[in-house]
Design brief:
Order of helices and strands: HEEHHEHEEHEEEEH
Number of strands: 9
Number of helices: 6
Mean pLDDT: 78
Shape: globular
Protein name: YokE-like PH domain-containing protein
Distance between the termini: 32 Å
Helix content: 25-40%
Strand content: 25-35%
Largest sheet: 5 strands, antiparallel
Length: about 200
């Protein structure tokens, strides 16, 4: 069940006369993604890892394919998770995943939220919260930040189905042929993802 805080956060994003259709608190799927768009805005500066940290990452990558650091990431993703999106640099999927990864940077924890209206498809993030702070989480849900959006007609297909061991994978396709995938924890209901998929179904006349 979606929180009342999220509902209030979505209401604040609506344009005059725009109707809300569906939302889902869901994350980008793990796996190989489209390349970053050409000449994107610079990402916030991060401290480069030390040589010792890179060596540790190499060892961990061998011991556990779910712990990945550095250039081995794409190889491990391909083997363990498969493909999480497809498209050329600068495609809709490319810009979506770049914007979502950029939004994750910085202090605090943020959740990604997909929002569908009768006009737009939006990828939003909650405000940063501290770990294990339920009060902060409620407040963060009311302050959604849109990080990427397109007109709803740009989406040409969306559905929820199995991918390897995950039965709750939401795949969204765009008019340029690119696509990206999202997943929900196995312990959570897939209904929000199904509602988003239904809301994104192409309108037929």
């Amino acid at each position: 069940m979606q929180s009342e805080g999220l509902a209030r956060g979505v209401t604040a994003l609506l344009e005059p006369g725009e109707g809300f259709l569906a939302l889902a608190r869901i994350s980008l799927a793990d796996g190989v993604e489209p390349p970053d768009p050409p000449n994107p805005p610079p990402l916030p500066t991060q401290q480069p890892p030390s040589h010792g940290f890179l060596a540790l990452g190499l060892v961990l990558s061998v011991l556990s394919p779910t712990i990945v650091i550095g250039p081995l990431e794409r190889l491990v993703d391909a083997i363990v998770f498969g493909r999480a999106g497809r498209g050329s640099a600068g495609s809709h999927a490319s810009w979506l995943q770049f914007a979502a990864h950029r939004a994750r940077l910085g202090p605090g924890l943020r959740s990604s939220v997909l929002v569908v209206t009768d006009r737009r498809f939006l990828v939003c993030f909650t405000a940063p919260t501290k770990l294990w702070s339920l009060a902060d989480d409620r407040a963060a849900a009311e302050n959604l930040e849109p990080v990427w959006q397109v007109a709803r007609r740009v989406v040409t297909g969306a559905w929820v189905g199995w991918h390897r061991l995950n039965p709750k994978r939401l795949r969204i396709e765009f008019e340029d042929g690119s696509w990206t995938a999202f997943t929900m924890p196995l312990a959570e209901s897939a209904e929000p993802a199904r509602q988003v998929a239904a809301a994104l179904a192409p309108v037929t006349t």
